[in-house]
Design brief:
The chain is mainly alpha-helical. It contains 14 helices and no strands.
Amino acid sequence: MKLNESPDPQLVGRIIEGPDCVAEGAAWLAARDPRLAAALAATGPLPLRLRRDGFEALFSAIVSQQVSVAAASSIWNRLKAARLTGPRKVLWASEEELRACGLSRQKVRYARALAEARIDYAALRTAPEAEVVATLVAVPGIGRWTAEIYAMFSLGRADVFAPGDLALQEAVRILFELEARPSEAALREMAMDWTPWRGVAARLLWAYFRVSKQREGIG
């Protein structure tokens, strides 16, 4: 994924643009820690997982909150069919129209708050991570996890991590043979060892989580 503007690497670090970037980061991580090397051997090549940035990416994240993947996909498809995935359309639509697509009243409020925020998405492409997160969490319905996921996959930031993610916490517990899942704060500190490739470490740990659960006969 090529972004429209080239961020200053002094501000944002590496940008993941394709599979070669992910492979480079994975090789760096494997060379740094034998446990990560073992995880990579178990998972194989890691997914790119890049997506477009902008309003729709965040609106889709709101839609996905606290519902199954299948339910989120169904709601999003109904919104697309009704042409209600753009900020102006969301503001113009009645609550009844949005609710008819499957949104709860709370998510209707969140969607409208996002549309009203008039975020400069192009500017976020070149903004430091802290500014990206601060801009996004100021919008009702968007928490730090969503902001970090957006920075990781919609902006391609190579050194962003989401330590509040339960699957990442569980993957670390299994891989590092911990007695319990690390807290968000503990995992955030632990992930500093994976700089400047924390975003690739997240991909690796998510992939390892899936492999581990498959071995246990789950999922």
